[in-house]
C-alpha cells in the first residue's frame, strides 16, 4: 500500500500498436514490404497460434500512439483542480511518436513539484515502453530519469515507493486472483471498458481512427484516477468526505468538458451514474 497522497498526481495510461518500421529492422525485411506483411512476420516470430493469431509483441517493437492523464493538483490555498489531458488532443490527427514521447516525458520530468505517477500495470507495461521507445528514438529525458540519492530527496519513478504507484501491484492476488482494471473498477462502481478494448486499438489505428483511440485512452486514465482515489480512501489517506468531494470535482470537470464539445465524456459520466445507482 502507498503511504502518501501528493499535491501533484498524474493518473495516466498509454496506448500502443505494433511498429512496422521496427519490424522491418528487427527481421531484416525490405523497405517496401507492406505493413500488413510486416505485422504477420512480427507475430510469427512471437509464436502465433490458432488460439492467439496476434500474440504479445515486445514493447520495443511497438509504437506509442496515445497518452492520457488526469492531472490532480492541490493549490497552496487547499483548492483542488483536475485536468484531463491527452496526446494527441481529442480531435487531432496522429502525432509522430518521437514528438509524443518527448512532450510527455519532458512535461512529466519538469513539473514542479514532480508528480506522483499512478497507473494500472504501469510498472510492468507503461513505464518499460516509455523507456524502451524513448531510447529507440534517441530521446534525452534527464529530469524524468533523475534518481535522488535518498528517498526523501525527491521523486524516483524507477524505485518501489510512492513516486510511482502501480495499482495492479497493490491490489493483485496470486495468478488467477489478479483483477483487470475493468474488473476491479466495475466492482467499485467505476466505469471500466465501454465498447472498446485494448484488442481493438490496432484495428482503429489501421483504419485511421485516432479519435476513438484517444477517447478510449482518456476513459482508462479517468478510471485509473477513480480507482486510485478509492484505494487512497481504503488506506485512510482520504476521509470519506474528502473522497466524495474529489469525485464531485471530477464530475464537474467532465460536465465542463462536455459543455465545451467533448461529447464522448457524456458516455463515461452516464455509465458512472448508472453503476453508482446499483451500489
Please describe what this structure looks like:
The protein is an alpha/beta fold and 279 residues long. The chain has a single domain, classed as Ribonuclease H-like superfamily/Ribonuclease H (Nucleotidyltransferase, domain 5, 2-Layer Sandwich), CATH 3.30.420.10. The protein is built from eleven helices and five strands. The chain has helices spanning 20-26, 35-45, 97-110, 122-136, 142-145, 167-171, 181-187, 201-206, 210-234, 240-259, 264-277; strands spanning 8-18, 62-74, 80-87, 116-119, 164-166. It has a five-stranded mixed beta sheet, sandwiched between helices. Strand 2 (62-74) and strand 3 form a beta hairpin. Helix 1 (20-26) packs across helix 2 (35-45) and helix 9 (210-234) packs antiparallel against helix 10 (240-259). The mean pLDDT is 93.
Provide the low-confidence segments as ranges: none
Overall structural domain count: 1
C-alpha-based Rg, rounded: 19 Å
CATH homologous superfamily caption: Ribonuclease H-like superfamily/Ribonuclease H
Which second-level CATH architecture applies? 2-Layer Sandwich
End-to-end span in angstroms? Answer: 25 Å
Global structural class:
alpha/beta
Please give the order of strands in the largest beta sheet. Answer: 3-2-1-4-5
Helix coverage percent? 40-55%
- From the spread of the alpha carbons, the general shape counts as globular
The top level CATH class name: Alpha Beta
The amount of beta strand, in percent, is 5-15%
SS summary, helix count? 11
Amino acid at each position: 500500500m502507498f503511504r502518501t497522497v501528493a499535491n501533484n498526481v498524474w493518473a495516466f495510461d498509454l496506448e500502443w500498436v505494433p511498429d512496422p518500421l521496427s519490424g522491418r529492422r528487427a527481421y531484416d525485411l525490405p523497405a517496401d514490404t507492406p505493413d500488413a506483411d510486416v505485422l504477420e512476420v512480427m507475430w510469427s516470430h512471437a509464436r502465433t497460434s490458432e488460439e492467439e493469431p496476434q500474440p504479445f509483441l515486445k514493447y520495443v517493437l511497438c509504437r506509442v500512439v496515445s497518452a492520457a492523464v488526469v492531472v490532480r493538483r492541490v493549490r497552496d490555498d487547499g483548492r483542488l483542480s483536475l485536468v484531463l489531458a491527452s496526446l494527441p488532443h481529442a480531435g487531432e490527427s496522429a502525432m509522430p511518436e518521437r514528438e509524443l514521447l518527448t512532450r510527455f516525458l519532458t512535461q512529466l520530468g519538469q513539473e514542479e513539484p514532480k508528480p506522483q505517477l499512478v497507473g494500472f500495470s504501469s510498472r510492468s507495461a507503461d513505464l518499460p515502453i516509455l523507456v524502451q521507445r524513448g531510447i529507440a528514438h534517441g530521446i534525452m529525458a534527464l529530469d524524468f530519469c533523475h534518481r535522488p540519492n535518498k528517498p526523501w530527496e525527491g521523486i524516483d519513478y524507477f524505485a518501489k515507493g510512492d513516486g510511482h504507484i502501480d495499482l495492479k501491484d497493490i491490489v493483485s492476488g496470486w495468478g488467477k486472483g489478479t483483477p483487470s482494471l475493468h474488473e476491479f473498477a466495475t466492482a467499485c462502481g467505476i466505469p471500466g471498458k465501454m465498447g472498446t478494448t485494448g484488442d481493438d486499438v490496432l484495428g482503429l489505428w489501421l483504419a485511421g481512427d485516432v479519435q476513438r483511440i484517444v477517447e478510449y485512452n482518456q476513459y482508462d486514465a479517468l478510471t485509473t484516477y477513480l480507482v486510485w482515489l478509492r484505494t487512497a480512501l481504503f488506506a485512510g489517506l482520504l476521509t470519506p468526505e474528502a473522497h466524495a468531494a474529489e469525485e464531485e470535482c471530477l464530475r464537474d470537470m467532465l460536465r465542463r468538458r462536455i459543455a465545451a464539445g467533448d461529447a464522448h465524456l457524456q458516455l463515461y459520466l452516464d455509465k458512472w451514474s448508472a453503476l453508482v445507482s446499483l451500489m
